[in-house]
Amino acid sequence: MIKTRAIVLHRFPYSDSSWIVKALTEETGTVSFIVKGGKRKDSPFRGALDPLALCEIVYRENPNTELQFLKEASVINWHAHLREDLLALAKAQVMAEIVLRYAPAGVPLEGEFSLLEEALAALDVPAGNAPEVKLPADSEVKLPARNAANNKSGVFARWLLDTCELWGYHLDMSSCSRCDHQIEGAPADFHPETGAFVCKNCLGVETPRARPETLAGFEALRTGRAIAHPEYVENALLAYLRSHIGFMREINSLKFLNETRKLYDRSR
Ligand SMILES: [Zn+2]
Q: At a CB cut-off of 8 Å and minimum separation 6, what does 246 contact?
C-alpha cells in the first residue's frame, strides 16, 4: 500500500459516476487513478480530487495496469484563494499541464512536486497578502520593500525558470553569452531559442529582438522584485522551454491563460 501526498493535475469523467484522475505524487511520480463513484455527492473523496488540490492519497500499486485503484483521499489544501483569482488559476493550470505532458513518466518526481507545491502555495494567498518572492539561492540582492499585492507576479515565471533548471536547460540570467561579463541591470537582449542573454556593450547598435518588458521582467526575476508585465517574461520562458522540449500548441490551457490575460489587460 502506498500513502503519499499528491497534487491533482487533471481530471475527466469516466462513465456517469466515475472520474479518471491524473496526479503528481510526492513518492511515485505521475499516476493515473480510476475513482469509482467519485462524481457522487456522497463520495468520500469529494473535494480532495479537484484539479490543483493538494491531498493525501492511499492506493495499492498494481504494476499490470495503467489505471490505479484509489483507496483513500483526503484534502490537505484545496487552494481556495487561488481559485478566486482567475489569472493565478490560469497560470496554475498551465503549470499542471506542462508537468503532466512533459515530466518523465514512470519515475519519482520529487523536484517537480516541490516546485509545483511551492508555486501553488505562493499563488494561494488573499489579494494584498502575498508572501515574499523567492530569490535564487546564490543571489546577493537584498529585497527592497515591495507592493505586497504584486508579489504573486513572479511566481509563474520563477516556476518556469526552476523547471527549466530541473529538466537540464539551465538559464544564466547574470552573465552575457557573448563576452561572459556580469550583466548589470536589465539584459540588453534575450534569445529564447538558445537562452542567450546579451549585455549592452555587446549589443552595441543592434536592435534587440526582445521587448523592453521582457528584459525588465528578467531583471525583476533576477533581483526578486515584482514584475510589472509578467506575461512577457513568462512567454519568453515558455518559448525557451518549447525550443528545448518541443511543445506549445498542445498545451491546451495556454489558450485559457491568453484569454484571461486579455481580460486583465482591459480592466487595468
Ligand atoms: Zn557582453
A: none
